[in-house]
Amino acid sequence: MSKEYRVAVAGATGAVGRAMRSILEERRFPVKELIALATAKSAGTRLEYGGEEVICRELTPDSFKGVDLALFSAGGGTSLKFAPFAREAGCVVVDNSSAWRMDPDVPLVVPEVNPDDVDWHKGIIANPNCSTIQMVVVLKPLHDEARIKRVVVSTYQAVSGTGHKAVAELLEQTPKVLAGEPVQPVVYPHQIAFNCLPHIDVFLEDGYTKEERKMVDETQKIMGDSSIAVTATCVRVPVQNGHSEAVNLQFAHPLSVERARELLAAAPGVKLVDDPANKVYPMPIDASGRDDTYVGRIRVDPTAENALNLWVVADNLRKGAALNAVQIAELLAERDLVRVPR
Ligand code: L14
To answer: What Rg do the C-alpha atoms of the chain give, in angstroms?
Structure first.
């Protein structure tokens, strides 16, 4: 008999929380009981799991008694405050916020890249940033072959990453702008319909945004190589779901386009979609709702030695968040690590 677990989802009513519930179901994670947790405001919300009604409860310090595993996606402040209560109660946390990612005692895991980092968890495992996850699944096989020295990435990020309210804001602004009516931005600082905002998360002292900083720090931590230089520009675009990235890579050793395609075609979690002659390349409308990370437009950058350009697209709510978190949970279950080491 394989084990079954009591699994909590904290932030159950959010965009990622909803995806976590459906992905646990889809992948038949061994859930004995699903506990839906959210803020007091959402407590009482009727949700469904495995064909049965689940009533959302308020997240409190006592929420984790008898719970084996908690998937958190309720914002950094909530994770900082409540993950320690979970761990105290013997409940392992997979946290989707940025709160714990760079803590040296917390593994930061993308199962296709650094699965063995789950082995040293102390009760909390962090799920990386959406833009970082889809980039590193593509970088990993190329790095193993030709060693990446430098990454220059620009992102084209969908509004769903910010949550339901941001999706609604894009959908509401679009017909208004078409009708020539004024729009009132609420979630974003500026109009998002028919626009691009080079601003995701907060600005830091050095002029970069925190989203850009996360891509640098998290890439090095996940790849286990702080010699990889990364520089990022993160941009919000009026796409509903699915992040895209233009990635420029410089390698220590030569890597042909043909060999890169071969490596990526064989890489776990990656699908090569690269047939420009037939107008075939990855797009967010195709990646949305899917699990793989799509890569195409692979070509030589003739302006530097051993350099390639490519284009990466994935569903930011799935591989960028909920799916990766559930894959971490699966790794923990496989390795019998759904317990807090004492
Ligand atoms: O997990 O798209 O660090 O507004 C923070 C920004 C998640 C996406 C994170 C967005 C991100 C979010």
So the answer is: 20
Ligand 1: distance of its center to the CA of 131 in Å? 9
Same domain? For 293 and 194 the reply is: yes
Other residues' Cβ atoms within 10 Å of the Cβ of residue 6: 17
Residue 113: count of CB within 10 angstroms of its CB:
24
Which two structure tokens, joined as six digits, stand for 140? 């990993």
- Among 100, 101, 157, 201, which residue has the most ligand 1 atoms within 8 Å of its CB, making it the best to mutate? 201
For the chain, what is the domain count? 2
Q: What is the pLDDT of residues 155-205, one digit of tens each?
A: 999 999 999 999 999 999 999 999 999 999 999 999 999 999 999 999 999
Catalytic residue among 91, 130, 143, 234: 130
Could you report the per-residue pLDDT of 327-339, keeping only the tens digit for each? 999 999 999 999 9
- Residue of the CA atom closest to atom 5 of ligand 1: 201
- One domain for residues 75 and 121: yes
Amino acid present at 220: Q
- Does a structural domain hold residue 340? no
CB 79 within 8 A of CB 100: yes
91 is catalytic: no
